[in-house]
Amino acid sequence: MLYVNNTETIDARFISAGTFIHEAGWTHQRRIIDSYELMLPIQGAVPMQVGENAYQLKPGALLVVPPNVPHAGAAPTATAVRFDWFHMTLPDVHAVTEPLVITEQINRAGLLLPNYTDELVMDRVYMIATQLLDVYQARGRQAYLQSILNSMLYEIAMQERIVLSKQAAGDEALQPVQDWLRIHARENINLNQIAAFFSYNPSYLSRLYKAKMHRTIGEEIEHFRLQAAETQLLETTKTVDQIARSVGYDDPKYFMRLFKKHENMTPTQFRKAYDRRHFNRA
């Protein structure tokens, strides 16, 4: 569900903000408030019940509690928790519960605030949130606080619009990611680097890639590395150890186990079995 408005601008009214910290075993008390609350988890997982919906609020996600809706902890926290919270009013905002697609309404709206998401690049949101908390702590002017709050909401809206665009594009949106993996697979890369390069939330990219490409990103990197190894086995005289290191494996023994798992033969057996076929082809 999205909270949207009908104008290109956002006019949120700041009320209050803070950071909540507690040891394990804490349960959010049941409350009903007359404003919107934005929760940004920093540490630990907070089980929340908002109306009829349950959430496991973890770092990298955000949750919006709407006005006049009962909300409470769904269970005691298993570990220490820390989250930032922001209370605000959002004039002329309504909820969109239809399937999320790029529509004229969404393109026109200044505010695109998901009720829950773990698909955004939250580092950018945290940066603005920290500034807002600092200014509030320093008793900054209301106009300044509202300006920073609206900047944070614009950032969330921009990223949510990108997420919706990528969802609408489907598999095509992941083709650049796959191409990049093919080029860089032999390097020492990880999910966070890839997600940052393409402006994805890492956990969201991981789920999306698996769902659309039917391989995890780790499996895709492994696939491209083994493809490169097969080419070198057939087209060069490099040793297996040299090939292992050239495609990204510092441990040749691990590479050989992995190769055998995928090809049902060792690299040496592969070279012997296929080199004649390779060099005799027209």
Automatic annotation (TrEMBL):
This is HTH araC/xylS-type domain-containing protein. Residues 175-273 form the HTH araC/xylS-type domain. InterPro entries: AraC-bd, Homeodomain-like_sf, HTH-like, HTH_AraC, HTH_AraC-typ_CS, RmlC-like_jellyroll, Tscrpt_reg_AraC-type_HTH. PROSITE patterns: HTH_ARAC_FAMILY_1, HTH_ARAC_FAMILY_2. One of its GO terms (molecular function) is DNA-binding transcription factor activity. SMART domains: HTH_ARAC. Gene3D superfamilies: Homeodomain-like, Jelly Rolls. The keyword Kinase does not apply. The lineage of its organism: Bacteria, Bacillati, Bacillota, Bacilli, Lactobacillales. Keywords: DNA-binding, Transcription, Transcription regulation.
